[in-house]
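Data deposition worksheet. Section B asks for the primary sequence of the deposited chain exactly as it was used as input, without tags or linkers unless they were present during the calculation. Section C holds the resulting structure in token form. Section D is free text for depositor observations; keep each observation to a single sentence. Incomplete worksheets are returned to the depositor.
Section A, Depositor: J.P.
Section B:
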Amino acid sequence: MNKINPSSVSESGFFYKNPALKIKEFQAFLTTRFGLIFALNMQSTILYYWVYSLTDSKLSLGFVGLAEVIPAIGCSLFAGHFVDQNEKRKMIVRCISGYLITAICLFAIALPFVQKEFSVSVLVGLIYFFVFLGGILRSFFGPSMFSLFGLVVPREHYPNATSWSSMSWQMGSVLGPLAAGVFIASLGITAGLLAVIVFVLLIYIPIFKITVKPILKPEKEPVLKSIKEGLKFVMNTPTLLAAQCLDMFSVFFGSAVALLPVYQKEILHVNEIGFGILRSAPGIGALITLGLLAFIPLKTNPGKKLFLCVTGFALSIIVFGISTNFYLSFAMLLLSGMLDAVSVVIRSTILQLVTPDAMRGRVSAVNTIFISSSNEFGDFESGVMANWLGTVRAVVVGGCLTLGVVAFTFVKVPQLRQFTFDNKKEEE
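Section C:
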């Protein structure tokens, strides 16, 4: 009798459940995605800490998010049109180069002898300016990566590939803030920003392992007509529109990340390492969930599960808001990340399944507007609300408003409740 190698059985079983990982270019895609998200999350964590240490102002934290969201939204529709009519890998390489330049500039102004030449207001203004440039790059990078995803992964593997793509994003979101906390505590802000430059440089290695892809929409058309088609598609697809609106308003009201420096200093009284741990807690929770989803994929009732997860997300944010215990706060942020990971996979899979290949750039650009509106405007909203109501009240009120959004969407959009992954198209 032939003996079976146990390792080959486990490997074949693993790849049977995760067929997308057999694709070499998808492996390079995941590495690129992880690397850039890691570097950008490390950079943003350092910048939030730096700005708060310079200004001691909650409102200034909100302006960091606002500085990125304005260009991200303002340029998104144009970016989607441009991405659809250009080669995707080249677009991503250009974005990485732009991020490298902004990282070098931020490192330069963080040098001690350079800081001495500027007042605090000028220094903070320069930080906002480079964050603004990063927002422009983001408006092109998101649609480019979304479009490239559809060119390296067969359609039948979208749900599995989406789980792994989300996992790579979350790994970057987890490890980036943790690395930032370690650098801030041990080597300082300047060394942390130098490390960001190194990590961005390394991203060139995997992206060039992906071959040049065909342009699926080679014919030129007026910019406004092209943008209008993308908007019309999203507006006429109820499930997609509702899923994006649910995400936008729940994160807009329920975001508490921008206020973590305040919780660290004034409420939980922990050091910089504690700040890094709190900042990465949602990502750790998401990573745990995404690891489980890779082996126990979502198959039934994704629409209903989406509503349940967003409801749980809101409740965990409310408990976090009133907590004065570091361990409870960490647990609630961890739980919020676990629940949000499920909803991210569901929303991302809906987006991949219903979007025509030739419109990926434009539809993703509209999606970027929703995401930017929720994340960065959410950070700004948190800063304004905390300045007006106080930190704890702002977080609790935001969580309650998120529950209201869930209830409204559940009642008004039955298509989302009833959605299954077997749905390929929706009638307009």
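Section D:
Residues 55 and 77 are 34 Å apart (CA to CA).
Residues 1-11, 424-428 have pLDDT under 50 and may be disordered.
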